């Protein structure tokens, strides 16, 4: 994909320079540190494409935001764990099952992290994965259709935060519990935490062809909190690293009580070893209940399967699966460099950052170089696994990503900055402020074996005075920095929807050629499809009315429906007969208690409607489709319960005025 | 307005854009279809497939009599238009509506851009055979 960055003329530079001066005179104004050519570096001319897709978690909106980099333009809000009335996701009969869980239909969640699928450690442009933090789930989203195709609930989890990090060939993605809880829903005193509360890490197998997920096994761990994670790669492929906090095992006022220990842990998991034990039949099958929801793009429908078993390995019984590495002060980030050799711990209350060496870790394990154990699990001597410490990097290190030149970029929440340092020498090279209180950051390809580099993007927790105020709740925001030179340069602030936790970026050239344009009407296997206007009809089954409706520019068929009665449930199965790109139709009906539906070309979607009173109810297409879009509408006649209005339907039939009256 | 959006810009350079053919025989329309061989008797297999495609993708706007609904009725279309024009209109509708005078006249009449229904050349030929049957050819 071509990306044309048009360099604007001198006038822009002059204006920008003027702004800098003007800002400089203003006391306590938001600092402007953009360089003179920043505008040209983020300017994507009308009609031109961005170089990268930025796949951004929506946090408490439960969605993914799709942005362009370097422009920061928002292209799509992609619903994953939350209902989305704009498209009917979670409201249409076809998509409702996507949000089923063992608790029932859960219409919202808190989506924190993104993982893009990789092959041999590099982006492969196939799927995006995301976690639901509240009601534990993971989702798989297609890079072809930009739709959620699968949601898998995670049993034995108290909140799925340490997720969905993936191995280098997308063999597994993980789901580590944020909150330890008693397994099996046991009713115990909260104060029995140490005795009864356990941690749980699910290893979810991803089918390399279909992408379908299933829980291969769970590791049962001592009870504390899992925060973030990264898989090993290269030499460390076969291992997984998890940051743990609350090794104090506190259950109240964690702010204080989980911040007592000088060091918590990074948990190193030898998952190949776990696979060996499973192959030997050492796993214990436990009865659980969790939902597995799959969207099929041929039937345009989701189905839910309730699963009832999971295989568990208790790491306390297999001490060579798991090792603890001491890591100062409640680590958040636990990031593996592109070579797989270095593991960076980011203790959010620490004033330094340890970098561990995979080679030294292996040597320490071989030599049993332990300082003790925790619930029987070996704790490696800190110095034995340590490559070195980054001294005085900043305050509150959170998360680290890498470029292709051996540099690391770490976000510092408390001191609101990004710090660039060299992974091998541990020397701090540069620092830039963020506005304000950065959480995660993202380098395109930063978590992979082959970073694309060029930019680092800050996802900030506080916006304060950066944008026009919008009442008490302000926009969320991200900031784009150029990292192509020695010094990082702020290029752009851009607002985001929801709360952007983590994000990844991927070159557009890997995605755009595969983007779905239409669904082929011939391949539509929705049982309620009307594949051609000749199949449009209305059928009554008891008190269910099934309207097999077609939509094409610009009429709905049928558009006159009579014989529906109060007490009936009307299902509008709308098939979009268009076969051209960018011609969705929408369907809405007055008084519907759910939402509208948007129907893509060749697709069938169903909106359920329950008329409550007699009368004539208009319906119409909501997505502007042609010069005669405003004409794309129809009438549903609702008669009183028990009336004998005959069922009939038509389009384009003109009747005598008296016809059908007087029933 | 969606209908006015440019078509897929990622497609390879459209070989149909050469206007040379149109100048040589404007009644054949503009597109990849330069010459259609039509045999009698009609190919019954093609007719069957053409009718299925019609039912799925065309019927919503085109009736088989001479009445215009959204688009014109198909009765006598094979005597009004060259077979090449018909197939180019089906397969290359965006260019036809931009450049072909006859197609533009139809747009002024119907005020609805005919959608690209993503037919293959074979599909379009099947539809043409179905049109010939509809017009009474044997």
H/I helix tally of chain A: 7
Q: Report strand % of chain A.
A: 35-45%
Q: How far is the first residue's CA from the last residue's CA of chain A?
A: 63 Å
Shape of chain A: globular
Rg of chain B computed from alpha carbons, rounded to a whole number of angstroms: 15 Å
DSSP strand tally of chain B: 0
Q: Which regions of chain B are unreliable across 5 or more consecutive residues at pLDDT < 50?
A: 1-13
- Could you tell me the mean pLDDT of chain B? 87
CATH fold assignment of the largest domain in chain A: Methylamine Dehydrogenase, Chain H
The helix/strand class of chain A is mainly beta
Number of DSSP E strands of chain A: 46
User: Which strand-content bin applies to the residues of chain B?
Assistant: under 5%
CATH architecture of chain B, by name, is: Orthogonal Bundle
Give the class-level CATH name of the largest domain in chain A.
Answer: Mainly Beta
Index terms:
heterodimer; A: 663 residues; mainly beta; Methylamine Dehydrogenase, Chain H; Immunoglobulin-like; eleven-stranded mixed beta sheet; six-stranded mixed beta sheet; 7 helices; 46 strands; globular; disordered N terminus; disordered C terminus; B: 138 residues; mainly alpha; Cytochrome Bc1 Complex, Chain D, domain 2; 46% helix
Quickly describe the structure.
The complex is a heterodimer of chains A (663) and B (138). With 663 residues, chain A is mostly beta strands. Chain A has three domains: 1-49, no CATH class; 50-513, 7 Propeller (Methylamine Dehydrogenase, Chain H), CATH 2.130.10; 523-650, Sandwich (Immunoglobulin-like), CATH 2.60.40.420.
Describe the protein.
With 663 residues, chain A is mostly beta strands. Chain A folds into three domains: 1-49, no CATH class; 50-513, Methylamine Dehydrogenase, Chain H (7 Propeller), CATH 2.130.10.10; 523-650, Cupredoxins -  blue copper proteins (Immunoglobulin-like). In chain A, 8% of the residues lie in helices and 44% in strands. Chain B is mainly α and 138 residues long. Helix content of chain B is 46%, strand content 0%. Chain B contains seven helices and no strands. In chain B, helix 2 packs across helix 7, helix 4 (83-91) crosses helix 7 (121-134) and helix 5 (93-99) crosses helix 6 (101-110). Residues 1-13 of chain B have low confidence and may be disordered. The chains are: A mainly beta (663), B mainly alpha (138). At the A-B interface, loops of A face helix 2 of B.
């Amino acid at each position: 994909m071509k990306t044309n960055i048009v360099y604007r003329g001198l006038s822009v530079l002059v204006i920008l320079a003027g702004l800098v001066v003007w800002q400089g005179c203003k006391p306590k104004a938001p600092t402007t540190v953009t360089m003179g050519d920043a505008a040209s570096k983020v300017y994507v001319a009308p009609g031109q494409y961005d170089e990268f897709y930025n796949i951004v978690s929506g946090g408490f909106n439960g969605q993914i935001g799709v942005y362009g980099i370097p422009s920061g333009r928002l292209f799509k809000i992609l619903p994953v764990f939350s209902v989305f009335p704009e498209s009917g996701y979670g409201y249409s009969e076809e998509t409702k099952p996507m949000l089923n869980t063992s608790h029932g239909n859960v219409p919202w969640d808190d989506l924190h992290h993104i993982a893009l699928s990789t092959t041999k450690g590099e982006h492969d442009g196939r799927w995006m994965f995301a976690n639901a933090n509240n009601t534990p789930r993971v989702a798989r989203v297609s890079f072809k259709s930009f739709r959620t195709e699968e949601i898998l609930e995670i049993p034995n989890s108290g909140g799925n935060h340490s997720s969905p990090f993936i191995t280098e060939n997308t063999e597994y993605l993980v789901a580590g519990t944020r909150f330890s809880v008693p397994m099996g829903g046991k009713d115990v005193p909260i104060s029995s935490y140490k005795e009864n509360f356990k941690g749980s890490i699910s290893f979810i197998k991803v089918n390399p062809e279909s992408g379908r997920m299933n829980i291969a096994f769970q590791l049962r761990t001592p009870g504390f909190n899992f925060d973030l994670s990264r898989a090993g790669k290269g030499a460390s492929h076969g291992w997984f690293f998890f940051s743990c906090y609350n090794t104090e095992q506190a259950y109240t006022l964690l702010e204080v009580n989980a911040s007592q220990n000088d060091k918590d842990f990074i948990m190193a998991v030898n998952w190949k070893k776990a696979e060996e034990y499973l192959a030997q039949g050492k796993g214990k099958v436990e009865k659980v209940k969790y939902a597995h929801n799959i969207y099929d793009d041929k039937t345009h429908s989701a189905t839910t399967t309730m699963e009832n078993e999971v295989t568990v390995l208790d790491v306390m019984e297999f001490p060579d699966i798991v090792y603890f590495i001491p890591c100062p002060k409640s680590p958040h980030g636990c990031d593996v460099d592109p070579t797989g050799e270095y593991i960076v711990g980011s203790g959010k209350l620490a004033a330094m950052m340890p970098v561990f060496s995979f080679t030294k870790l292996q040597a320490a394990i071989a030599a049993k170089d332990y300082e003790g154990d925790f619930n029987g699990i070996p704790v490696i001597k800190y110095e034995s696994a340590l490559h070195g410490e980054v001294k005085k990097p900043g305050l509150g290190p959170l998360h680290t990503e890498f470029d292709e030149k051996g540099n690391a970029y770490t976000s510092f929440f408390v001191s609101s900055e990004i710090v660039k340092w060299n992974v091998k020498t541990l020397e701090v090279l540069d620092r830039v402020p963020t506005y304000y209180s950065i959480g995660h950051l993202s380098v395109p390809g930063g978590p992979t074996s082959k970073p694309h580099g060029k930019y680092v993007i800050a996802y900030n927790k506080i916006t304060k005075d950066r944008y026009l105020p919008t009442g008490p709740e302000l926009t969320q925001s991200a900031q784009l920095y150029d990292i192509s030179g020695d010094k990082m340069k702020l290029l752009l602030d851009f607002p985001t929807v929801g709360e952007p936790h983590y994000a990844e970026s991927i070159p557009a050239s890997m995605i755009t050629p595969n983007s779905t344009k239409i669904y082929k009407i011939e391949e539509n296997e929705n049982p309620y499809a009307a594949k051609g206007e000749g199949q449009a009809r209305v059928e009554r089954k008891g008190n269910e009315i099934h309207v097999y409706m077609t939509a094409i520019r610009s009429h709905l068929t049928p558009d006159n429906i009579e014989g529906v009665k109060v007490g009936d449930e009307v299902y509008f199965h709308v098939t979009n007969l268009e076969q051209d790109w960018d011609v969705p139709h929408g369907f809405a009906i007055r008084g519907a208690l759910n939402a509208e539906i948007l129907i893509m070309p060749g697709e069938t979607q169903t909106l359920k409607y329950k008329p409550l009173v007699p009368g004539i109810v208009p319906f119409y297409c909501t997505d502007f489709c042609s010069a005669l879009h405003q004409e794309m509408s129809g009438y549903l006649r609702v008669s009183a319960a028990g009336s004998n209005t005959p069922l009939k339907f038509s389009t384009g039939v003109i009747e005598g005025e008296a016809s059908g009256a007087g029933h | 307005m969606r209908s006015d959006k440019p078509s897929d810009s990622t497609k390879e350079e459209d070989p149909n854009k050469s206007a040379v053919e149109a100048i040589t025989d404007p009644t054949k329309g503009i597109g990849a279809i330069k010459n259609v061989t039509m045999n009698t008797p009609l190919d019954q297999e093609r007719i069957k497939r053409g009718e299925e495609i019609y039912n799925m993708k065309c019927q919503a706007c085109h009736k088989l009599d001479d009445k215009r609904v959204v688009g014109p009725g198909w009765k006598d279309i094979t005597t009004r238009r060259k077979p090449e024009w018909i197939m180019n209109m089906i397969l290359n509708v965006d260019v036809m509506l931009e450049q072909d005078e006859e197609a533009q006249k139809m747009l002024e009449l119907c005020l609805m851009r005919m959608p690209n229904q993503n037919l293959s050349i074979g599909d379009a030929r099947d539809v043409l055979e179905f049109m010939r049957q509809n017009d009474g050819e044997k």
